[in-house]
Design a protein that fits this description.
There is one protein chain. The longest helix is centred in the middle third of the chain and has 36 residues. The N and C termini lie far apart (71 Å). The chain is built from 10 helices and 3 strands; from the N terminus they run E-H-H-E-H-H-H-E-H-H-H-H-H. Strands 2-1-3 form a 3-stranded mixed sheet. It is mainly alpha-helical.
Length: 317
């Protein structure tokens, strides 16, 4: 260990793109990032300020929007920088902090989507007891468990990665400090890190996904046995449609990335799948929920009218 050179910083190699397209792609991803901040920020503001949206579903939606804002802010600025600067240095401590927040937000979002699936299950299969089961204290407790459990698992990943010896190359084949490319650079024993990565993937990726699948299986069974009318089916799918779409957008690339062998996969493949769930999914979530939710659309329109009216009064003065 004494002969090993300590790494003070890493170099993020970013995305491999054509130089002729880098400025166009930069503008596209910059607009996506701005749309993520505006769209999710609008949902957070509306959920906080409108008494009509203080129910469980909108409380979870507000938390989801907060997660999307933080996750995109952790990943997108470095990715945008990579379109303009080929090699992006990041300090060792900065890399560990980014790794922590990347896994913290990702794991929390997975658990939160599972909680939202349970909320939809109760709303459809047990509507008469919905207010009793999904009361405010229970909702706050479930969300607190999601945030706190994800915090500790992300902290474990970051601390264990920070204790690894790094020597030789310091170039990370990614636009973010992800655990798999970091482990490739380590010259120490990464066996325990790989075990924790497998445990984390099982508990915080496959676990919530399995729970979501079971929730929707129960919903479908309930509809088949109890609901005979077409209007009942349409109402149920209207209730679940937005959530199912968001789950698909998040879990398709995440699962595709996670079920591959932990080491030895194409680094560029990992980069592309990370782009999908860290840049595209956060910008689509608010549009999915607002376009399919009449109450949110109505309140957003009312808010925009108020803002427009306020601007007119300001300019008259």
């Amino acid at each position: 260990m004494e002969n090993q050179t300590m790494v003070g910083q890493f170099i993020l190699l970013g995305l491999n793109i054509d130089l002729e397209l880098q400025y166009i792609i930069f503008v596209v991803f910059l607009l996506l990032y701005m749309a993520t901040l505006v769209g999710n920020g609008a949902i957070v503001i509306v959920v906080l300020t409108e008494p009509q949206l203080h129910g469980p579903m909108y409380y979870f939606l507000g938390n989801l929007s907060c997660l999307d804002i933080i996750l995109s802010t952790v990943t997108c600025p470095k990715m945008l920088q990579g379109f303009l600067i080929k090699y992006q240095p990041i300090s060792f401590n900065g890399c560990m902090v980014q790794l922590f927040f990347f896994y913290f937000m990702g794991a929390t979002e997975g658990i939160l989507l599972a909680i939202m699936a349970y909320d939809r299950y109760v709303a459809i299969c047990n509507p008469l007891r919905y207010t009793l089961i999904m009361k405010k204290e229970i909702c706050v407790l479930m969300v607190a468990i999601a945030w706190s459990s994800s915090f500790f698992q992300a902290l474990i990943h970051a601390v264990m990665a920070a204790r690894l010896p790094f020597c030789g190359s310091n170039q990370i084949e990614h636009f973010v400090c992800d655990i798999k490319p970091l482990l490739k650079l380590s010259c120490g024993n990464t066996h325990l890190n790989l075990i924790m990565l497998t445990v984390g993937t099982t508990c915080f990726v496959m676990g919530p996904f399995t729970f979501i699948l079971l929730s929707y299986i129960y919903i479908i069974i309930f509809l088949l046995l109890k609901v005979k009318s077409r209007s009942g089916w349409q109402k149920a799918f209207s209730t679940c449609g937005s959530h199912m779409t968001v789950v698909a957008l998040l879990y398709v690339p995440v699962l595709f990335n996670s079920i591959l062998p932990t080491m030895g996969t194409s680094s560029q493949h990992d980069v592309i799948t990370t782009v999908l769930y860290s840049a595209f999914t956060p910008v689509l979530n608010p549009f999915i929920y607002t376009l399919r939710n009449q109450k949110v659309k109505m309140i957003l329109k009312k808010l925009l009218k108020k803002l427009d009216f306020g601007k007119r009064i300001f300019w008259k003065k």
